[in-house]
């Protein structure tokens, strides 16, 4: 089944909170499912890379595109890492994130420490 990036990102946009609820993986996984791709679950957002790849996503580079998913590794105080989906304008997880070039980082601690990340794209 093809991935409907518009449906996924519309769902993410319409269900995002003003601030983090600590449920980024669940929100992004649900948005991806609304786009037609079901992911198996894992506890930590930082562990979704192989799961995304098994579902047909591939590592991507360059300018973010609608439907891209960022998987960010952990930092002190945030052992589960983070994940977010790009709606074509901004990154969204369980909330609408900060804009700018590092907009996939969910907060100041991530933007300061800049942990490793990967971007995944469904063809």
From TrEMBL:
Gene3D superfamilies: endopeptidase domain like (from Nostoc punctiforme). It comes from the Bacteria. This is CHAP domain-containing protein. It comes from Paraburkholderia sabiae.
């Amino acid at each position: 089944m093809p991935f409907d990036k518009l449906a996924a990102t519309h769902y993410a946009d319409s269900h995002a909170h003003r601030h983090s609820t600590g449920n980024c993986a669940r929100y992004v996984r649900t948005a991806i499912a609304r786009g037609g791709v079901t992911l198996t679950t894992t506890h930590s957002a930082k562990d979704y890379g192989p799961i995304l790849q098994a579902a047909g996503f591939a590592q991507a580079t360059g300018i973010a595109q609608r439907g891209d998913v960022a998987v960010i590794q952990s930092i002190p105080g945030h052992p589960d890492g983070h994940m977010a989906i790009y709606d074509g304008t901004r990154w969204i997880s369980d909330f609408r994130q900060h804009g700018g070039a590092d907009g996939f980082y969910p907060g100041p601690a991530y933007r300061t420490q800049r942990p490793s990340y990967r971007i995944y794209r469904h063809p």
